[in-house]
């Protein structure tokens, strides 16, 4: 059997080769995608009967990019809906699509499905191995060690046509590739499958922590998908460590774990361990009283070499807290991935998250980049106002250092010239492939965890709730804004409403519930169900508050005519005005 080190050398050798020949790798990738799927309805529509097999690389790329249009999810949605409804003729791919994955974001207020094939789980495996190889060069770990991994699989459901639907991570954790990854990297997750797919954030987190502590002497890595989850898990630990400790002492499991199969699986792994329990207790008492939980991770997991998760983009807001828990332990920022395609690997794991960029892996998809020139930024710090002027897309080989681009993907799963919606900056090159850093997601305004809601989503749900208010009361909404409260634990959305007229509390409570339930973005729904995002709050402000906000900001904006209430704000001056004017607060009961 191959050692982990030999496996690491193999995969790094492979990546060095494809990145040196990135341009060639891209041409070959495009050719493979088109040959695999030639003749499918979507490609026939744009390429007609063109024989891609007969074309040289340059002609192929020119024909493809001049005939096939750049699209967004809304354009692909009718095809994906037909697949979801059970149509089996080759629409996007020749091989039938039997599984759909739920990407974050929505299309016209509906959940966003993207095709999923075994190619995706294989690519995730390839990416994990590549990443493990680069990271182990900086931070070597033991073979056979453990990872305290805060990972959560949601439920797999069925479409009307009988296809399975789940998030890409849910589908991956249930795949054989997830097992293969542990075997080839020779690092094993502490928690069994029954905990990973337990479906309740609190119960799963409790078990992840309990098992992480039970195996603490073997833990090399503390990890999660996005860093929000690690921060949530340890803030839960601060409140509940005594109960966890008691379970370790007695080899028992708290009655708060109600899932029988999770109970069985955890109880089968643990044994009473009074000496470990008293060590943990001593450390926790000291951390609680004197240290404010600084360095919690290395104190409780002294053999851990690093903390790993996605820490870039919107996750930067949790970095301070993560550093606090990590003490001096290195933070290794996770790769750049999406449900549509894997994108880039972090080849510099030693860099702090603020400086991390990702080397594009040119075999995962055919990548194009739309050059963007940002317009002057609005004073109100609105991501949706940061939209930019676009130019003609360029291939991977033509991106320029320091320039910003929107990523466009052509994937093995049947997305052709598909706008991902992410804006990246080219920060360097790894051999012949660009290194890109994530800048922001276009049009995104509300984002705490894996949820992603745009201004349009917000407007849609608030409109519905406003209608409900005017139908059931003598009141109407005059103006509104929102805020993603990442300081609360767990994080939550806050909606500020100014209303005119009289409204009973019960009606407003119902509006609050309606808004919370109205966000159908799968990332939000799953996070709310699992309680990793807290109940949405509706804060009613006194009459005239938005007028005060406008007055305050007009100075900066120029003229009152030009002022538009931002639909989401992180501006502390604006939040102070709003919070000082709150007359009533309602908490949603939508997911109670
Ligand atoms: P999803 O569609 O739910 O699979 O989420 C994928 C999206 O998450 C990407 O399109 C990015 O907007 C964001 N994302 C993924 N990886 C990173 C990363 N390393 N840094 C910042 N944002 C990321």
UniProtKB/TrEMBL annotation:
UniProt keyword terms in alphabetical order: Ligase
Entry-linked Pfam families: GH3, GH3_C, GH3_M
Ligase among keywords: yes
Domain GH3 C-terminal per the UniProt entry, residue ranges: 456-571
Top-rank taxon, per record: Eukaryota
Domain GH3 middle, first and last residues per copy: 359-441
Coiled-coil residue windows: none
Cited InterPro entries: GH3 (IPR004993), GH3_C (IPR055378), GH3_M (IPR055377)
A cellular component term, taken from the record's GO annotations: cytoplasm
Listed transmembrane segments: none
Molecular function in Gene Ontology: acid-amino acid ligase activity
Similarity comment: family membership: Belongs to the IAA-amido conjugating enzyme family.
Protein name: Indole-3-acetic acid-amido synthetase GH3.10-like
């Amino acid at each position: 059997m191959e050692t982990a080190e030999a496996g690491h050398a193999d995969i790094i050798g492979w990546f060095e080769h494809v990145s040196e020949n990135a341009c060639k790798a891209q041409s070959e990738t495009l050719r493979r995608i088109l040959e695999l799927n030639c003749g499918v309805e979507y490609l026939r529509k744009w390429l007609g009967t063109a024989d891609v097999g007969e074309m040289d690389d340059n002609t192929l790329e020119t024909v493809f990019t001049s005939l096939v249009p750049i699209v967004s999810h809304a354009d692909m949605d009718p095809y994906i809906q037909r697949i979801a409804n059970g149509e089996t003729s080759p629409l996007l791919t020749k091989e039938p699509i039997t599984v759909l994955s739920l990407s974050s974001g929505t299309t016209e207020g509906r959940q966003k499905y993207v095709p999923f094939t075994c190619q995706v789980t294989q690519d995730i495996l390839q990416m994990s191995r590549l990443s493990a190889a680069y990271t182990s060069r900086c931070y070597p770990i033991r073979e056979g060690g453990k990872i305290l991994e805060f990972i959560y699989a949601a439920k797999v459901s069925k479409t009307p046509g009988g296809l399975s639907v789940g998030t890409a991570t849910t589908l991956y954790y249930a795949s054989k590739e997830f097992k293969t990854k542990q075997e080839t990297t020779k690092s094993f997750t502490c928690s069994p499958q029954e905990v990973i797919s337990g479906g309740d954030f609190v119960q799963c987190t409790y078990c992840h922590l309990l098992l992480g502590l039970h195996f603490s002497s073997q833990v090399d890595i503390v990890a999660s998908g996005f860093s929000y989850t690690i921060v949530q898990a340890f803030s839960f630990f601060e409140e509940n460590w005594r109960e966890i400790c008691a379970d370790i002492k007695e080899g028992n499991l708290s009655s708060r774990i109600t899932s029988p199969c999770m109970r069985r699986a955890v109880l089968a792994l643990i044994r009473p361990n009074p000496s470990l329990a008293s060590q943990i207790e001593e450390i926790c008492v000291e951390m609680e009283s004197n240290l404010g939980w600084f360095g919690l991770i290395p104190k409780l997991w002294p053999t851990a070499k690093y903390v790993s998760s996605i820490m870039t983009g919107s996750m930067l807001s949790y970095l301070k807290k993560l550093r606090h828990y990590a003490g001096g332990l290195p933070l290794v920022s996770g790769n750049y991935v999406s449900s549509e395609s894997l994108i880039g690997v972090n080849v510099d794991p030693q860099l702090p998250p603020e400086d991390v960029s990702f080397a594009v892996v040119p075999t995962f998809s055919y990548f194009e980049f739309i050059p963007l020139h940002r317009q002057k930024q609005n004073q109100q710090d609105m991501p949706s106002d940061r939209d930019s002027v676009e130019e003609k897309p360029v291939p991977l080989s033509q991106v320029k250092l320091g320039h910003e681009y929107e990523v466009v993907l052509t994937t093995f799963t049947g997305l052709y010239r598909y706008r991902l919606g992410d804006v990246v900056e080219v920060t360097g090159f790894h051999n012949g492939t660009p290194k890109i850093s994530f800048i922001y997601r276009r049009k995104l305004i509300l984002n705490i965890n894996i949820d992603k809601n745009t201004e349009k989503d917000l407007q849609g749900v608030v409109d519905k709730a406003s209608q409900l208010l005017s139908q059931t009361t003598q009141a109407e909404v005059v103006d509104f804004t929102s805020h993603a409260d990442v300081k609360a634990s767990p994080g939550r959305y806050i909606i500020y409403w100014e209303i005119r007229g009289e409204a009973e509390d019960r009606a407003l409570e119902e509006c609050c519930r309606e808004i919370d339930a109205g966000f159908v973005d799968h990332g939000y729904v799953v996070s709310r169900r699992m309680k990793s995002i807290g109940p949405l709050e509706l804060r009613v402000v006194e009459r005239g508050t938005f007028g005060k906000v406008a007055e305050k900001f007009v100075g900066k904006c120029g003229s009152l005519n030009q002022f538009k209430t931002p639909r989401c704000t992180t501006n502390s001056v604006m939040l102070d005005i709003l919070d000082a004017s709150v007359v009533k607060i309602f908490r949603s009961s939508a997911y109670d």
